[in-house]
Predict the structure.
Amino acid sequence: MIQSFLEIAQPYLLPVLYGVVIVALVPLVDGYIVLMERKVMADMQARLGPMRVGPHGLLQPIADGVKLMLKEDIIPESADKWIFWFAPVVSVTTAMVAMSPLAIGPVFQIADLNIGLLFVLGVSSMGIYGVVMGGWASNSHYSLLGALRSSAQLVSYETAGGLAVISGLLFAGTLSMRGIVEWQAQHGVWIVILTPIAFFIYLVASIAETNRAPFDMPEAESELVAGYMTEYSGFRWALYLGLAETTNMIVVGSIATTLFLGGWLRPFSGTHALDFLDWFPALLMLVTAAYCFYRTPKQPVAIQKLVLAAFGLLFIALAGVLGISQTAPGAWLKPGVHGAFWFMAKVLAYIYTFMWLRFTFPRYRFDQLMKLGWHFLIPTAIVNVMSVGTALALYRQFGWSHFGLAAALGVTTLITLLVAGYLAYVGEQRTPAAEMAERA
Amino acid sequence: MANHLIFYFFAGLAVVSAILVVTVRNTVHSAIFLITTLLATAGIFLQLHAQFLFIVQIILYIGGIMVLFIFVIMLVNLDVALHQIRFNRQWVVALVLALVLAAEVGFALKVGAKGVYLPSGQSGQMEPNTEMVGSVLFQNYMLPFEIASILLLVAMIGAVVMSKKKI
Amino acid sequence: MTGAIPMTHYLLLSLALFTIGVVGVVTRRNVIIILMSIELILNAVNINLVAFSKMAGVVDGQVFAIFIITDAAAEAAVGLGIIIAYFRNRETVLADEMDILKW
């Protein structure tokens, strides 16, 4: 009886374990990404950020989580109760389900779907319903308008992002996440080097997809009173902003990393002369641990000294894991652990770029946002797909060498840049004032 | 065993959600139940080893068409509509006729299934699914593909013209 | 309880969804619900096609289903555009109040 049950359950055990790990750890990781954002924001604004709760604010996410859970749960009286309850659930669920085909290393992957990349794009496009239902159920004009604006923005930039992804897929030839990274490993080149424009278009589209500044008109504090999240307070708001949006950031970062930045590959993974770079992760952890221990005596309160020392020990443990897996036997240990490190490092770098852009640029007005999406990004993405496709088709048809393909891709980039430049020039000529003067 | 469970789960979900689509009073709830029905249908596609169609259903139907429906429902929703009668005056006759149609086809299926050989099907030439669909679509069905793109262009123009205030 | 699902199960599911869609089209007053029931009918046909495609072991049925989804998108877009245009003029979305062409 137990035997047959184990037989049936055998293929599902490891994926379920990975799934449980993701569902348990992602909220914690999201909390620390929000803390990272606050510290980065503070750094760019020449101040310090959260410093009180835990040393250097390191326990701030836990305090925030506890506070939000204990807040009073307010539901507007004429709101549609079921949809009000259901909307944040949809947002968070689609964001987490979208994490299932992601390959965080060559080992840690819940399911290597044949259609992995398309699955992630499709399921994160279902996140629109969380926004729309939240705005509708709040039964308030501001919420509804904010929700409609936000979903219009999401749909527009999804198209642009999808076209940019296609440019990358033309090289990889497969939708499976593992297959894409293995293509990059085989050919020794990251796809970002082959189509940098597609990477840039995807960067912009993913910022708009996750409602981050400078595209955060629907949820900004000075516009429409936080849009579709206006009536949500306490933990429901934390579900929307903390969990759903941050998990969406991780998901789009993972797509960009897998498709364009080489997934779990070390930089220059093909050249064995640079194998000393494999010691870099362990060294990084040791340096961080040393910094933690250096700052420990300088903390004012004893408990903060303890917490910082604990973090130092955590980093030493991580350094140990990374170092030991370097020399240990077992085919899955070194690629698994090191691959996970490089993958997470690249995703964090991508998210850092999001935050950098957030605190640098002013917000786009809604009509400027839509104009950018439809009049600039989508035509540029289409031209990019067409020219990359033509270059690849000519390469395969006439059997050019790799240098011929590189030259063709250089021409492609040039053509796309020219088209983009032309569109930007035309876009600047047609300001709303000029258009209204035309119509009058 | 798991196969049967998955099929009955998705089939039951699809039928229950479909009944709720045509009976609930609130239009937004009806749209949400249609989303559930479409998800269940996508599950049936996945169970039939049609992975590409599964994800196309989710992206196009649920992520595109239903968003369109929900936008329009929110634009034309009148509070008055909540208190109005749901069904039209001839609903009894209509229901009886529809059920007669269903009974006829169901009877034909049950009786005819004994005479016609309907094998359960093997995967055959369907794996890997995306590559197969792609090659069949762009080799055998190239003309319908081009016609479908012209159809979409015409529909886009039609929708834009329909919703303009002044043509 | 092992093995594949017999073909008639899929056909009966398709029939059930089709009937519910037809009932929705002929019974409800709200035009948007009628359009949604038409989508139900199209989905029932899709299930039918994909089931037969698996039975024959080819992907042609799935390709046909992709075309049907494309078609449904076009039709939903135009239909909803018409509904919006009508609503702007007459302030109603109920089918039995749209009777200008009656004698």
